[in-house]
């Protein structure tokens, strides 16, 4: 494990077990991003263990709770604490399953209470201002327009969008074949206006690759070197598009996914149908959008009901 421990040096047996866990996770196909996050989380546990002079991982539950308390004392937000403790539970569960320890001390480890956060979304007016762009004159402008249109038309995660290949475009059916979380595939339709934007982009894409003499690539969204576009680039495009359209700043690409779901719900689409389009495994995840709908309804009620308006003038 490189560069994750500051302070007292841990017992070799501690670091070796974490290294074995990381290697096992990599062999199971855990994504590099998730692997880096888990390695950093366990690095914090390793620092704590070294400071407390643990001689091994076969510790008591109360000893492990000391680490959980330390996370709170260090001022980490509840979401970060919950993520770290989830990694710790996975690590100790693996240690127990592989008989490296005699008991799993993490089974009673509880996450801090998380504040309920409603997802950010754009109003329909803001979405329109963002998407009503002039006809693109080149590849770069066409690509930005295509990104924004597909995020809002299909409610895609950014990674799902950048992961699209040409074979995933069912152009005649106006449908995308999307590979979501857990490698679960779903079909997502898109409307006629989005189809026109996508087909225009594909024309610019073909001309761009040919003009630059770049090799063929399966990726739908490509960068200026002909490689697959990254989620980081998409976030940058959105930030600039929001500024150009004079729409609220600090809105992530995920906000277009939330806007997609919220606006469909506002216009009467069934919640289970929205669940299918978003690729949510659980309906409870999709039900967050009912809270947004009720919040909007409450504001409309306050501005429309005669008695509510009268009370506001008292």
UniProtKB/TrEMBL annotation:
GO biological process: cell division; chromosome segregation; DNA transposition
GO MF annotations in UniProt: DNA binding; tyrosine-based site-specific recombinase activity
CDD domains found in the cross-reference section: INT_XerDC_C (cd00798)
Entry annotation: catalytic residues: 157, 181, 254, 257, 280, 289
Annotated signal sequence range: none
GO cellular component: cytoplasm
Keyword Transmembrane helix: no
Alphabetized UniProt keyword annotations: Cell cycle, Cell division, Chromosome partition, Cytoplasm, DNA integration, DNA recombination, DNA-binding
Domain Core-binding (CB): 12-96
Stretches assigned to the Tyr recombinase domain: 117-302
Domain of life, source organism: Bacteria
Spans through the membrane: none
Pfam families: Phage_int_SAM_1, Phage_integrase
UniProt subcellular location: Cytoplasm
Role: Site-specific tyrosine recombinase, which acts by catalyzing the cutting and rejoining of the recombining DNA molecules. The XerC-XerD complex is essential to convert dimers of the bacterial chromosome into monomers to permit their segregation at cell division. It also contributes to the segregational stability of plasmids.
Family membership noted in the UniProt record: Belongs to the 'phage' integrase family. XerC subfamily.
Quaternary state and interactors: Forms a cyclic heterotetrameric complex composed of two molecules of XerC and two molecules of XerD.
PANTHER family: PHAGE INTEGRASE-RELATED, TYROSINE RECOMBINASE XERC
Name by which UniProt lists this protein: Tyrosine recombinase XerC
Provenance organism: Mesoterricola silvestris
Upper lineage: Bacteria, Pseudomonadati, Acidobacteriota, Holophagae, Holophagales
Gene behind this protein: xerC_2
């Amino acid at each position: 494990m490189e560069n994750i421990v500051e302070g007292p040096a841990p017992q070799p047996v501690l670091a070796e077990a974490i290294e074995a866990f990381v290697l096992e996770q990599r062999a199971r196909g855990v994504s590099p991003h998730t692997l880096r996050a888990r390695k950093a989380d366990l690095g914090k546990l390793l620092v704590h263990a070294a400071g407390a002079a643990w001689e091994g991982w076969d510790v008591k539950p109360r000893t492990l709770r000391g680490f959980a308390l330390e996370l709170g004392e260090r001022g980490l937000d509840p979401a970060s604490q919950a993520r770290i403790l989830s990694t710790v539970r996975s690590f100790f569960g693996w240690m127990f399953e592989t008989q490296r320890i005699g008991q799993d001390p993490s089974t009673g480890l509880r996450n801090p209470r998380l504040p309920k956060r409603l997802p950010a979304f754009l109003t329909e007016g803001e979405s329109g201002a963002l998407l009503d762009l002039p006809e693109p004159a080149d590849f770069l402008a066409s690509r930005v327009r295509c990104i924004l249109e597909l995020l809002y038309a299909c409610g895609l995660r950014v990674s799902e969008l950048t992961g699209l290949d040409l074979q995933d475009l069912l152009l005649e059916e106006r449908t995308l074949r999307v590979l979501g979380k857990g490698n679960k595939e779903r079909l997502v339709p898109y409307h006629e206006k989005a189809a026109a934007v996508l087909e225009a982009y594909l024309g610019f894409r073909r001309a761009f690759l040919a003009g630059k003499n770049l090799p063929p690539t399966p990726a739908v969204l490509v960068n200026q070197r002909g490689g697959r576009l990254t989620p980081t680039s998409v976030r940058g495009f959105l930030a600039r598009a929001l500024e150009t359209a004079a729409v609220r700043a600090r809105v992530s690409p995920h906000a277009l996914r939330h806007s997609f779901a919220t606006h469909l719900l506002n216009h009467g689409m069934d919640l289970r149908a929205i669940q299918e389009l978003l690729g949510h495994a659980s309906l409870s995840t999709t039900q967050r959008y009912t809270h947004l709908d009720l919040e909007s309804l409450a504001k409309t009620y306050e501005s429309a009901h005669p008695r509510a308006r009268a009370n506001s003038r008292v």
